[in-house]
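Wed. Picked up where I left off yesterday with XK-related protein. The coffee machine is broken again, so keeping this brief.
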Amino acid sequence: METVLEEPDEENIGGVSSLDERMVLGRRARIKFPFSIVFSTFLYCGETISALYVFNIYRMNNDKFWMSFTIGLFFVGIVLDQVTLMFFHKDLNKNKIILLFWHIFFLGPIVRCLCVIINYHKLLKKLEQQKKDTQVSMSRRHMKLKREIVLSIHGIFMQCKAFKCMSVTQAFLGSVPQLIFQLYITFTIREWPLGRAFLMTFSLMSITYGAILCNTLAIQMKYDDVNIKLRAIEFICIMVWRCLEITSRIVILVLFTSSLKLKSIPFLSVVFSILFLEPWLEFWRSGAHLPRHTKSNSNPVETVLMLILITLLYAAINFSCWSAVKLQLSKDEIIDKTPNWGHRILHHSFRFIENVIMISVFRLFGRKTLLNCCESLIATQLIISYLLSIGFMLLFYQYLHPSWPDKALPEHTENQPELIIYYYFCSRTGYFLITC
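Structure written out below (tokens, as returned):
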């Protein structure tokens, strides 16, 4: 994970504190290429191109129903990506006409990625120039160069944070509905063309990457004063856990909806509504009020809207997989840094019951699938896959979860925020800035 520094005053784009400057310069030798930005942009481009290709196939075949839903889900995801980046950087307040132009044509992530790559190479040249300076050159020019290096590093780190926010938003508010719908089409018409396979592959990669980001954020929140690095075995365990959990959950949802058609909507709506309303019910029961430490330019209406967006994303994550954190609107720190085993067990218990109910409905009312296997075998395999994902989760939290002092790196203890979009929303409404 790339490290990032505390965000400076939003109104002063060049304002970086002396402490932040010392932190940046102290780590300049370990500046790494922002691979996370490139990977997020790759997923964005792959899902966009494949969705447009599948849309064109449906249009040529005159499948208006599939075509309309595909392009609709595509636009929801891609618009949210643009809004996330613009909101994160406050482009509307800073009057960045050129960037707004690219975002209007849905090219904002690509342009920003290219800008980061260019700035990274410029930064390397500035670092080389600084190394050539002698002790005699400790002049105003040298100090200006050092200041430019600080701002360049800070800008790259902030872009990494923004793109990870975009990846999580894209994964659970764009890729999940798209993957469920395309898999539903596949099971309904029992055809699997190459274009749809590419779209489903990119959607699954996007969801898995977003889920892994949730895990890395939760780990860093638990040890917010220590730099945590995941080893290969830990990362592989998380990836296997998330792949099994997400694929089994989504396939079960698709088989359930394909069995009951429109009759499945009430059940799924109730499940999602419970996830969405649960934090608000807890907020109401606690008798808490809206945050008192809001910024001067925030008002109650804006605060409530931000909290609704936070809860929506939180519910979307938990509908697909374990979010690795717990939302608590009744407290200033709205993300519980140390979610206990009770909450984790409760979540997986309810998910397991839901999956068993949905797979039982498929077993009783379902029809032959694309795999041409008996319903009992498919149902058993899906339940076993979900149980295996729980097993890998228990393995990770019991034996592989980074813990102080054996897996933490004590030599670097400054806070390094790396925010998912709903944590960033929290900072906008005056809440504690969650670190990662």
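Quick read: The chain is about 70% helix and 0% strand.
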